[in-house]
Automatic annotation (TrEMBL), chains A, B:
<dbReference type="GO" id="GO:0009234">
    <property type="term" value="P:menaquinone biosynthetic process"/>
</dbReference>
<dbReference type="Pfam" id="PF00501">
    <property type="entry name" value="AMP-binding"/>
</dbReference>
<dbReference type="InterPro" id="IPR000873">
    <property type="entry name" value="AMP-dep_synth/lig_dom"/>
</dbReference>
<keyword id="KW-0547">Nucleotide-binding</keyword>
<comment type="pathway">
    <text>Quinol/quinone metabolism; menaquinone biosynthesis.</text>
</comment>
<keyword id="KW-0474">Menaquinone biosynthesis</keyword>
<dbReference type="InterPro" id="IPR025110">
    <property type="entry name" value="AMP-bd_C"/>
</dbReference>
<protein>
    <recommendedName>
        <fullName>2-succinylbenzoate--CoA ligase</fullName>
        <ecNumber>6.2.1.26</ecNumber>
    </recommendedName>
</protein>
<keyword id="KW-0067">ATP-binding</keyword>
<dbReference type="InterPro" id="IPR045851">
    <property type="entry name" value="AMP-bd_C_sf"/>
</dbReference>
<feature type="domain" description="AMP-binding enzyme C-terminal">
    <location>
        <begin position="398"/>
        <end position="473"/>
    </location>
</feature>
<dbReference type="GO" id="GO:0031956">
    <property type="term" value="F:medium-chain fatty acid-CoA ligase activity"/>
</dbReference>
<dbReference type="GO" id="GO:0006631">
    <property type="term" value="P:fatty acid metabolic process"/>
</dbReference>
<dbReference type="InterPro" id="IPR020845">
    <property type="entry name" value="AMP-binding_CS"/>
</dbReference>
<comment type="function">
    <text>Converts 2-succinylbenzoate (OSB) to 2-succinylbenzoyl-CoA (OSB-CoA).</text>
</comment>
<keyword id="KW-0436">Ligase</keyword>
<comment type="pathway">
    <text>Quinol/quinone metabolism; 1,4-dihydroxy-2-naphthoate biosynthesis; 1,4-dihydroxy-2-naphthoate from chorismate: step 5/7.</text>
</comment>
């Protein structure tokens, strides 16, 4: 028998109708109001011909409207495809086509931009939908089947072609409860979202809010001053950050401190450096480091604040319902022996859209790490083809594939370079056709039209040849040596 | 793909090895020690020929040993059948045979009693197993399949024949997390068990302890003085009680009060009377009322302490992953309309041993109740054939079936009578063969050999005839009238 749960928000509205669900800088809404709104919105969306089982693309910045929309689509029984708003139209087109979305819903400002390549009955601004007087009372989904896909987020892989990660209702529920078994749940908890909702780090907070019956505070953009104010005077108890955000928060905090009610700074996207941990320790800021990815529906490994200093550099242990092993050539490794990080758990995706499911439930992350004698994970290297820049994942193969579509480029290789502000930024090596007159600026302009800004290489270097092995595979690690020869770092 | 989780205790021992798992009056044990012990015990049990998939009967009082044994059997992959220690040998025999258990493990004191009817290679005292020098290293189950049966507890139904309720690993996990979404989880939580582990109220606390990583305090028997001491000076934050226990605790407490760290008195087994709620309210005792049964693997409906007075008499709302409806003749009822209470959720049993599963996941409880306008459940009547006496469920049909096996009895009917000490006690009406010389005392002695003491009717009344309808079905509600005619209450 399939496992079903009641519609998350409808159920939460029944249990805690008057409890505050979401606060933004300008408005606030209870769980009952949120459900009522999401139901009305569902009827409006349905009037545009959207039905259960349809894929719907969303290309919107953080807002209360986006949150309402996310629950409206669940009410109809749609699969919600959340796109990074920093994508170019070309990148977005690929994902929308791949997901076979029936419509795109976007912010007002971006709407005309998108309506140009597509027709008007395919791209709608949120306000067009919200302002419609049409109303089609489709059946509201009162139950969620845990194995049904709820949301999809795209990540790129080694091929350079983005793949849609399927997140089921079960993945979201298990992820929320796994986190609860680790961090606990308190009546007065309030989790601040200052990361994008189109990333799993943001969306998972929203899901926890509804599943726990917990207030969520939404910031449209990350502003250290506003975040510190929310923690210091607006009763925020937990916030999710990436390392670069943490350092900005501590800088902005200056000589001030957080109230004792603030209980967790959940830090993802790579280990926090010891110097930063020591600063946080002095200021009594409880930093809980975590390792996770879109495919694990948020956290899968976490390090408690009490272990932060003694286990510096570690991401912690796998959450209660999750398993982790280190594998080299199919063989599980013992303690202190590095290999590929392989994970399993009910929060782990069953697979990518249009691709076969993982048969035995184990996800090969591509990341390299080891477990110490006590079972703490140390991530040595994110998959060699991954650059993490200000919390965004950048896949070199994707940039290379665009570079190589330029008529004068015959080969290219992209690698990450340390950067004080962003953690890492991409750098590109380009081999031009002999005699080509193309300049670095030409290449940059070519990329600007085709890649999200955060993916644009900070530096382009022309070289005669790239390190490739006998089977012509690019040797990514050797690109780092090439960098040094070219005077970087 | 089946959902699997890591072995609960093994995983907990990896995450929180040094954390206190269980404290009794004489000893204490960490999660790592508990797992090590449960593993050794598994090897010892295996040396008696017990293997994965075997059913093992347990007939033991609350003790640390019993807790270790429960986890040892999970390590092997056995199905654990937990029997009420108040059962007579005859009652136990029925359940053991029905479950097809391979052995019975019992306390030392009860061992010789049980070895009499059975042979010595079928009944073992716990100490015989624990003292063996044999050791068979069977594979430890590192994963639990959530749809596999973990434990079995017997309840009687309308037929008088006890049925084995299957509780899967998933039922236990979902029950624990559903409770967490309601009560929260705090780092300093400590849950006191003063109810039997062979009941779901006790076992579910032990499971929560391991799933949450929470300390559990075990009392062998309920002693109000000791319980109050544990709450007042041993940092207990939550305790599960039935109404009779609650009143004894409040009496014993006298002018004293509980510390503010004490956060939940979880009260099951019928609504708490208003006068008691008011006494608790005055003393700042947070009473959380709950409705649940063996089939729902503990709580399924709860009333928060803040709603206790305004919703007096209510059991509250269905937990987050659970659903509830009121049904009359297959038709779902609206607010304030009474009918049968029907529940669904991932914590609800998939069915009884040797019987078909519930097809659509809805469990018909047999209890009568209604929902108010805000969705709060009011239980009007436990199934008419159920007597709840001091937290134990008594099924009249079971007593009647024993009565009718007496050679001089031609008909019988049992019903519950209010009792100050026990809440309710059974009373029996008996129709004798004409001319029979059997006395009430004879009948009592007959019952004592065949029924657990708590099931023995407090009073036996000889009558000429019983209220039966046209199809000869006993009209239980009319037995109440008969009681009044016979001078009770």
């Amino acid at each position: 028998m399939e496992l079903v749960l009641p519609n998350f928000l409808e159920k939460r509205a029944q249990i805690s109708p008057a409890k505050m669900a979401i606060k933004t800088e300008t408005s606030s809404i209870t769980f009952e109001q949120l459900f009522t709104r999401s139901k009305e919105l569902a009827y409006k969306i349905a009037s545009f011909g959207i039905r259960k089982g349809d894929y719907v693309s969303i290309y919107m910045e953080n807002s209360l409207n986006l949150m309402e929309l996310i629950f409206a689509l669940k009410n109809i029984g749609c699969i919600t495809v959340l796109h990074n708003t920093r994508l170019t139209v070309e990148e977005l087109t690929y994902q929308v086509k791949d997901s076979d979305s029936k419509i795109i819903i976007t912010d007002e400002e971006k709407c005309s931009l998108l309506q140009e390549p597509w027709n008007h009955s395919f791209v709608y601004s949120f306000s067009t939908i919200d302002n419609t007087v049409k109303y089609e009372e489709v059946p509201i989904q009162h139950e969620f089947n845990l194995s049904d896909t709820d949301t999809i987020m795209y990540t790129s892989g080694t091929t350079g072609f983005p793949k849609g990660v399927k997140q089921t209702y079960g993945n979201h529920y298990w992820s929320a409860t796994a986190s609860a078994l680790n961090l606990g749940i308190r009546e007065d908890d309030c989790w601040l979202i200052a990361v994008p909702l189109f990333h799993i780090s943001g969306l998972s907070i929203l899901m926890r809010g509804v599943i726990y019956g917990m207030e969520v505070v939404l910031h449209t953009k990350f502003d250290p001053k506003k975040v510190n104010k929310a923690i210091r005077s607006e009763k925020v108890t937990i916030i999710s950050v990436v390392t670069t955000m943490l350092s900005k928060l501590v800088d902005e905090l200056g000589e001030e401190s957080y109230p004792t009610s603030f209980r967790c700074m959940l830090a993802g996207g790579g280990p926090v450096p010891l110097s930063m941990l020591e600063r946080c320790h002095e200021k009594n800021i409880p930093v809980v480091q975590t390792y996770g990815m879109t495919e694990t529906c948020s956290q899968i490994v976490t390090l408690s604040a009490t272990d932060a200093i003694s286990k510096v550099g570690s991401s912690g242990k796998a959450l209660f319902p999750c398993q982790l092993k280190i594998v080299v050539d199919g063989v599980e490794q013992g303690p202190n022996s590095p290999g590929e990080i392989v994970v399993k758990g009910p929060n782990v995706t069953t697979g990518y859209l249009h691709r076969a499911s993982f048969e035995d439930g184990w996800l090969y992350t591509g990341d390299i790490g080891y477990l110490d004698d006590e079972g703490f994970l140390y991530v040595l290297d994110r998959r060699s083809d991954l650059i993490i820049s200000g919390g965004e994942n950048i896949y070199p193969a994707e940039i290379e594939s665009v570079l190589q579509s330029h008529p004068d480029v015959i080969d290219s290789g992209v690698t990450g370079v340390e950067d004080e502000k962003w953690g890492e930024v991409p750098n590109a090596f380009v081999v031009l056709k002999s005699g080509a007159k193309t300049t670095k600026e030409d290449i940059m302009n070519f990329l600007y039209d085709r890649l999200a800004k955060y993916k644009i290489p900070k530096r382009i270097m022309f070289v005669d040849t790239l390190p490739r092995n006998a089977t012509n595979k690019l040797q990514r690690r050797k690109l780092k040596d090439l960098l040094h020869q070219n005077g970087a770092n």
